[in-house]
Specification:
By secondary structure, this protein is an all-alpha fold. It is built from ten helices and four strands, in the order ααββααααααββαα.
Amino acid sequence: MAIDSVDDLRAHLALATKVELSTIPPYLFAMYSIRDSECDAARLIASVVVEEMLHTCLTTNLLLGIGGDPEFGYGSIPEYPSLMAHHTPDLPLVLERCSQELVRDTFMVIESPRAPNAPPEDDNYETLGQFYAALEQAVDQLDGTTNLFADPQAHRQLSDPSYYSPVKFDAEDSGGLMLVDDRESADRALEIIIDQGEGLSDERWADPDHQELTHFYKFEQIASGVSPIGEVWPVRANPKTADFPEPVAGVSRLFNALYGLMFVTMHDLFSGENDQDRIIGRLYGLMSACMTPTARYLVEQPISDGEHAGPTFEIHRFSGDPWHEAADLADAVASQDSSLEGVRSIVASLARVSG
């Protein structure tokens, strides 16, 4: 089915955001399972996650740029295991400990380069490159027949380049945040996503100066053993909080609340009603200083039959103010294990300025 209206394009850009967000938990889960968090394999995965968050922001900017309204509510939170939306053939998304097989058979398939001359595919796509090529084609066609960028909502977009900083293995000139308010900037945003994921044409590189490997070739480094994974925690595949004993289950509930707050924060970032300087700082603090140590705590906890817990990335339905509810959960877990005191302190601080 061709994208032949502005409403169709908005729906497909919303799908693009959902797809980008759906890849992040499987990548993070695998990264958290690696015992040496500073090894190249773990940091390669981290570099991909950082760019997936960038891609989420770029697809959201593009949706806003054509007058759309992004949605970061419960319906946008993926569940696991599940299938990658609209991918053909079916591609299961799972939460599993890191292995060469997982990286080769799932992660490299997600980021697989399109074949030379492969056609754009807006539905039932074989590669993400074909899907994004269909979006680029639709932008170019619709811009010629409609006033596509009449209301770009610049005040809602996350476009300040200083809000995005490349991490190890990422190059500054492979792309960053940008305002999307015309056909040229929309095409550039889509090209950034395509180049970082599958590469410039059929090359291995995400940037013109060949300083950064594409996502596909970053994962190939791990799958081939060039960047060894090393020891991993024996985390249970696709874990569920309900299967954990207390107090581990309490820590899992906290993690899921923090994960839910990531979506709350994304909503606030693109609302146009908040100070983005403050909100972007909240997002970074939430992901790096709260979610990461909580997840690493979970993967170290034995549960049964030689298996360990892990972050479940389940939907946490808040019953009241989400920030204060998360702070209460952090209080409860830190009172039982002082190693989580740092998380409690940061969540409490975030609650004071956000609630």
